[in-house]
């Protein structure tokens, strides 16, 4: 396990470095100069030159890259071109919104998807099993912002049960207020995410229900519940976990849309604002942190799979499959 | 919505006459009903400050939130367009109009506790003029030759040439503490509020300053809530998360508020003009007849109606009704398709021509461009719409003049003077107009200035220097339990200290 971990961590670091190079170069391919974000109509050529000098966009590319890499290596993400605020603390303050949003939505999606997916598989020949399968298919087709707008219209504007958006100015100082603001966004993300999760849980369960080992266990006298518990869940969870890892990462990145609909000051809206303002340090910082988070989630999902499935831990078993 | 605040700040021209007109807050009034002086006012806006320093590219949002609220100037631009004393108690002008002696209030303290002196004033004017200044007002002060501080309460400014708008222009210069640091992320002004917390991307709170020299604010705290999406902003107002929206930009949503007794929709005066700006340097728009033809071929009334419904107004030139030199010029190039066809034929384009319209990608430009394309097709002109970002507009159109025609909103009052600058992006070059604009700024009296700028206005309309499509409405929507908010939002200021909540 230890050599595996070391290999995996080394892989993580290399990927992160390559991602940072790609990020830096891709951003510089965009047309326009970030200095323009600081200026308004009426600026003189001297003012434009001063702005370029101030934010360093008049420096050659390699020099800009080395400066930035040096900062990142010391965990300093630099200062925003536009607001001059340090990027690191700003990202931290945005994560306070995005991480709870992602995790709560993810947990809710799992809570919805596992039982529903199981029933849809176990009772796939009954009308309600088919209906659940069909509904989940429909759910995948629905865009997340539409669900958000719908929930706002019904639950915020008509029924006045939850706020339409925003987040407390003092963040989690009063957790009740913060949770209240997160209710609709969490439900929005969870509904959409659970639709695709249901499909995976359903198909994994169907595979297990069809499997020889389950039939054998039943033939040996196990009850359905104990056969599922001892053999079924364990086998079904392996593919589901890898999907969960991907889904969690997708949710984290997909928060951009939900945060915009619900006016949440999260990482996604920071990214959108950064792009609109051509604020390279902000864009780079957010994307770097997101990339890191996605890589770590993938790493954890891999790890979880190895713990659950002994075949992945022992190459000789895997080879004999 | 992500709108780059394209603020056309300029060599603006003021009437000294207006100075005498107004003394106190325009919205002061007497308080009605029971109001809570410890209330928190929640303001919703689409314009977040980019940073807190208006000489470092803070943008439209920093003016809206901080001007007059956190920072004060020597003189104040009131919501009705007049100018009055603020940190200055008065001033004297020498007979040649070149020396301004300005007297300061003696009881003013910065939020940090330091007393205001003439050194702070000199520092603040210098800050606007500094080489690295990104102040949009910098070009207004080219006449400033010297700033002297004979004593703590007197500032003497010497000009190289007469500048009748000098006092008006000073209403844009925030007075900073000359010892303050980190002004892009913190503040030290003299206004009725201090900045509480700024959560970039979300909120900016202002707290009443106990040591304020003037009348205290009528509320204890004001929180600006920033939205990037107009619908989310309207939802916040509908669910009472905000009490007032500074400038409604979503005309479709207004019906939610107009027929609702809980909200008041205020239709104030705006200075924002939507322009179809030609590049007057290049063919075919270097030909006056072609510009006139295009102007006459577009039904501005129908365009305004389709975008703003029953709000907004038609102008016919660059000058809005709130400027002293306004005249109704909508008849100069009337909507008349036959006239447009005749003018095109006369100009040598009987079968029309094709041109590219560089269109900013944010509202209302794309919709307006599509409308223009349809209108011009009727006279045989083919329009290729080229959608560009605000940033590309700035580089391609504003800096490089690499365009044939473009669309842009110009937000400021008194900005007709740009037509006197042949190097400006639209390239209008009429030596007579340039001369008039220059003379107007050097006028001895406001009447002379007004007369000259009226001539400018008439001439640019005759020449169809640009096509001024319409004047935006300025719509403030507020909860009915709120009073004392500004209605006109001149140059995007939004004074909050008189707002009361019952």
Description:
The complex is a heterodimer of chains A (321) and B (502). By secondary structure, chain A is an all-alpha fold. Chain A has 2 domains: 2-73, no CATH class; 87-319, MetI-like (MetI-like fold), CATH 1.10.3720. Chain A has 13 helices and no strands. In chain A, helix 1 (2-28) runs antiparallel to helix 11 (280-308), helix 4 crosses helix 9 (224-261) and helix 9 (224-261) packs parallel to helix 10. The mean pLDDT of chain A is 83. Chain B has a domain at 273-471: Dipeptide-binding Protein, Domain 3 (Dipeptide-binding Protein, domain 3). Chain B has helices at 17-21, 59-66, 118-129, 166-170, 230-238, 255-258, 288-297, 300-308, 337-346, 365-377, 390-399, 431-441, 446-462; strands at residues 40-45, 75-77, 83-85, 88-93, 99-104, 144-151, 154-159, 193-199, 203-208, 221-226, 244-245, 263-268, 273-278, 354-360, 382-388, 405-410, 467-471, 474-479, 482-483, 500-501. In chain B, the strands form 5 sheets. Chain B has a 7-stranded mixed beta sheet, covered by helices on one side. In chain B, helix 7 packs antiparallel against helix 9 and helix 12 runs antiparallel to helix 13 (446-462). The radius of gyration of chain B is 23 Å and the shape is globular. Chain B starts with 16 loop residues before the first helix and ends with a strand. Chains A and B meet through helix 2, helix 4, helix 6 and helix 10 of A and helix 5 and helix 11 of B. Chain A: This is Peptide ABC transporter. Chain A: It is found in: Cell membrane. Chain A: The chain crosses the membrane at residues 9-30, 103-122, 134-157, 177-198, 238-262, 282-303. Chain A: Belongs to the binding-protein-dependent transport system permease family.
